[in-house]
Amino acid sequence: MIELLKYIDTRLFLFFNGNHTDFMDSVMMAVTGKFTWIPLYALLLFFVWKKTKSKMWLVVLSVAVLITFSDQISVHLFKETFQRYRPCHNLLLKDKIHLLNGECGGLYGFVSSHAANTFALATFLIFFFCRRDFALCMYLWAAFVSYSRVYVGVHYPFDILGGMVLGIFLGAIGYKIYFHLNKKYAD
User: How many other C-beta atoms can be found within 10 angstroms of the C-beta atom of residue 175?
Assistant: First the structure.
């Protein structure tokens, strides 16, 4: 069964990674970048401030702790435990991969930290703002960022799926903790 899942995952990876154009290459390099999303984060901070005013510090602190935990859990509890090579470190796929920037990242890829972190943030903010239209936008954003990791050649689709599940789980727990802390510090 595990071999079948690996086979499906590899086939999906080769399909998504192999369908590229020069235009999409430049788009995906931007999407996968760390600094591309600073304007979005600034806008989200503005809306958090509008909703919370003086208690914005609690939201910012909660999100910072959430992303730190998400990132560390994805690396130390998953990547280092499962030790599944990234596709770009898989010698059998080396000549079949479209590796965009020539950088593969760490040796192991399950689960994707990008996926875990973006889905954790999205889930936390979806609970925080409690709006369906916002939920759709945030999950589409997280999925787009996560997909870019397959496109650039550094993650298998199941790495993304695992990161998504982990991120949603941690985002929901993070919001519950924030909610209880917010009640404790209520004005």
Answer: 21
| DSSP letter, residue 85 | B
Q: Which residues pair with 85 in a beta bridge?
A: 108
Burial class (CB in 10 A: 0-12, 13-18, 19+), 85: middle
* 3-state SS class at 82: helix
Q: What does the alpha-carbon distance between residue 177 and residue 183 come to, in Å, rounded to a whole number?
A: 10
103-120: pLDDT as tens digits: 888 899 999 999 999 999
Class of domain 2-184 (CATH, top level): mainly alpha
CA distances 173 to 11, 62, 177, Å, are: 34, 11, 6
Give the C-alpha separation, 71 to 82, whole Å: 16
Global pTM value: 0.93
- Is the Cα dihedral 154, 165, 34, 78 positive or negative? negative
